[in-house]
Amino acid sequence: MKSEFINKTKKIAKHRYFIPSCCVLVLLFVFLTLSFFDIGFIFGENISYEKKNEIQEPTVPTIPPLDTVLYDSLLTKLANNPILPVAEPKIDSVTGQIIPPPEPKPNLWPVKTVYPNAGAILPFNRVIAYYGNLYSTKMGALGEYPEDIMLSKLQEEVKKWTLADPEIPAIPALHYIAVTAQGSPGESGKYRFRMPDKEIDKVLAMAEKINAIVFLDIQVGLSNLQSELPMFEKYFKMPQVHLGIDAEFSMKTGAKPGTVVGTFDAVDINFAANYLAKLVKENNLTPKILVVHRYTQRMITNYKNIKPLPEVQIVMHMDGWGGEAKKKNTYNQFIVKEPVQFTGFKLFYKNDIKTPGTVVMQPADVLEVNPKPIYIQYQ
Questions:
Q1: Peptide bond into 339 cis (omega under 30)
Q2: What is the pTM (predicted TM-score) of this model?
Q3: Could you point out which of 60, 216, 226, 246 has its C-alpha 20 to 30 Å from the C-alpha of 346?
Q4: What backbone torsions phi and psi does residue 260 show, to the nearest 5 degrees?
């Protein structure tokens, strides 16, 4: 009797634990199967096990295609061509014949060049730049003021320009002289000094604080662009870094910088543009801006051979100082009459007011010129 009771007890115990054990095994099998194939759906996600463990690449912002209609419209606005009265035909007093009016002169602006690639800054924005060097308080606003004050002053100028021309919003820029011409030959004998990376890095950090773009300006001295530009290639590969080249200090005759005004030819400018274009293509960048300083006739030769590219937007920049009348005359003689693509206009906080009775031009004053500049630089 006792042994029969024990046997029944064992059978009951065996059935009591068998069913839960089977349930546990079934659940474990389901869980492992789901984990292997797609654990994500358990939590409402359609993410594979393998994908959950991959390092996700940062999302690259999508650049909309170029709005060519808006681009053309803004170029027409910048051209600022005056509306001329319709010329009436005249009657010859002797013969009585009608003399037709002369054909109107064709407008030089806007310039018909290639469309830029998508993501171009110009003419959708007006660049407002502070120029200078961190080693000098006399070369421009960028190095003259403490960082916080300088950035604050620049942002105030940006606001003024946006208010003056709301259709083209203004954006800030730091235009840093990365190679400065020198009065002495130095170790290289090239009468130029390259800034160390740590100084350029400081400017990049400053610009980041106000979401500004950066220009590295090159004064070649007795060197050349072919030698200088590659020294800064790692910076030109950055999407926010652009280029300025200063013909005043390009001493092709071997003269010491500062003794005569230097010169660039179209060959030099095209080299710089093609150099940048190559980096844009290789690194999938949006178009670069190339600013070319000019305030005399001989500073730039063979302007008709300068070739803007889809990857590079060229700004011919009026770099002269003085009162308003003098500056406008320099602009008209050396920028307007020899059109390339876009124009720039420089304002000097100190040099423009050296003559008694003169003041620094305000945005409304500058916007009266034809064409309107898209790049404004303060020194």
A1: no
A2: 0.81
A3: 226
A4: -140, 165
